[in-house]
Predict the 3D structure of the following.
Amino acid sequence: MSARPGFSLDALEARWGRAGAVHFEERYGGPVAILTAHGARAVVALQGGQVLSYVPAGGLEVLWLSPQARLGTGKAVRGGIPICWPWFGLPPTQPDYPAHGLVRARDWLVAGSAAAEGQSRLVLNAEPTSADAGGWPRRALLQLEITLTDTLMLALSTENRGEEPFLLTEALHTYLAVGDIAAVRVEGLERRPFIDQLTKRWVGGEDAPVTIAGEVDRIYQETPDAVRVVDTTHARCLAVAKRGSQSTVLWNPWIDKSARLGDLGAEGYRHMVCVETANAGKDTVTLAPGARHRLVAEISVGPV
Ligand code: BG6
């Protein structure tokens, strides 16, 4: 069995498979790990270290994924949890670098797996070098730990393995699935200042929870606490708790931008909202040589 050149599913299964907890197979045209724990399930693509699906025990899908999702095209898949690193958004220096960094479309290596009662875990590594990252002049080890229990937790660690300090921005670009965006409110961002990416202006903050009835693209600052997406259609609340992050990106492309992006499907914007656990905007991380930074997001589902 081979998922694509360079990957052997048999070898992955033999080395990292864990009975009843971690299993490898091919989906969307590429290798994925399936994590299971007490009836909960998560699907993780080795391309981009991208979680594509999270279904809690007895519950509905938590992550939105494009109907056109296909691995191995050289492009990032739209949906799930893409990893934006080592910059969020447009590149800080070279304009020919891709938006949202260097690791969304590359293959990550499995570096660990574990199973315990009610818990499964996968560890992925990526180590972009200047040769395979378009001349990016830094050295870093990136490690992503994905832990499935009755929540889904992602921990992204960056270690500076070079001789110079470097500045990092990043995001766990989480596409949350919602029943109908018109019946959603986002709590936890009240009174936080944000950069409105549509007008390029700073806004001082709003008193009420956010509702979405048009394109929204905001980088909220000073957001150490959990954000809650209250979805009355599905009668559930999706909470994104976090550590190592002082900013949160809220994004819905709405109709015109969806048409430009092309991979959301006609009605995709109605069924998703991105709540991105980030270090972005004024919230940057400077890593000294040898230093590490850990960005953690924990997604849980509860009643409204
Ligand atoms: C969001 C940004 O995080 O990602 C938006 O705030 C951007 O500005 C969106 O359009 C999607 O980016 P991409 O590169 O996946 O199309």
Summary: Helices lie at 9-16, 254-261. Residues 99-100, 173, 197, 217, 249, 251, 261, 276 surround 6-O-phosphono-beta-D-glucopyranose (CB under 6 Å).
